[in-house]
Amino acid sequence: MEIYGKQYTVKQLRQRVGNMDQVAGVRTVQLGDGNERPTRAALVKTGSGLELTVLLDRCLDIASASFGGRAMGWRSVTGDVAPQYYEAEGLRWLRSYFGGLVTTCGLTQVGAPAQDSPLSGDGLHGRIGNTPARDIQVSQAWEGKDYVLNVTGTMRQAVVFGENLTLKRTVSTKLGAKSFSVRDVLTNEGFNRTQFMLLYHCNIGWPAVDEGSRLIAPSRHVAPRDEEAVDGKENWAKFDAPTHGYAEKCYYHDMATKRDGAVTAAIVNDGFSRGEGFGVYVKYNRKQLPRFVEWKMMGEQDYVVGLEPCTCGVEGRDVDNRLGLQQWLRAGESRTFEIEFGAITTKDELKEMERAAAGVQPKLVDSYTGFVK
User: Fold this and answer.
1) Could you tell me the fold of the domain covering 2-372?
2) Are 59 and 155 in contact (CB under 8 A)?
3) What is the pLDDT, as a whole number, of residue 171?
């Protein structure tokens, strides 16, 4: 394996350290300042420069990630917020939305607050992202020639007379890696067929997002969500400097895939010609997550681009039901979702991202319903 620019065997590396956490590992901590208290977290480092903060009390979401000291994800003005401060009503989810590289949305509601069920009372983006994990397991051990780092936990979203869903998540990486993966298994633990919605709010921030940055993706069709997104729709893949008074724009993408269903989308800044480029990619499988939303927000402080693989839309459960797009889980049924995240720091890595999107000519269309039904 390569560590700090040199190749080592397992034996050679072990000869040089008393404990592997000198190079890579997972450390569990409790956050203790302000309204983040007393959130549990796992701090992960791989020895390559990749570092993650996994919030154990917030769905094992990735509150922050960096590579070589450069942030991969955007951090909101709220900072980390403990789950007891979650406000479910209406749009108040935003009061505990830390951003981060990954915020999970669902499990029975994504997007605009739902009006179809008084019992659910689902506000913006649902409840799962504010749910603490149970049965937490941390492992860091040699598996052959790989030193593998895993953090696993299970979240349950349940209500009497309603849904009983679990989401078992494993965040995984290894020594020397520039990337990590999130693997989720969603299970209907109840005895009734249950609708579900799941969206991965992958929030890419500065320095990957900057004036002159661009989105690289195999987009066949791109559709604005609403009238606000129609204005400037031809610039869906281009990003500006922070703009005062900017109104968010959302675009639905119809992605071309590899034979196995894989899709890779990336945001890169314009520094590669100067030897200082940086980018972040998200890789997922369209067979698992058939839809994709780009959230373009160029505001001051709210300066972020969301790459959002999902099973649903972002206009709420009411809209998906009306359009016949709502997905369901049978009693006892499970589904698996896997996403990979990584940093882009070299011209060769940039070229690899560009090759993945080569040959696909995006076409702007008026509505997403033509390519999701």
Assistant:
1) Beta-galactosidase; Chain A, domain 5 (2.70.98)
2) yes
3) 98
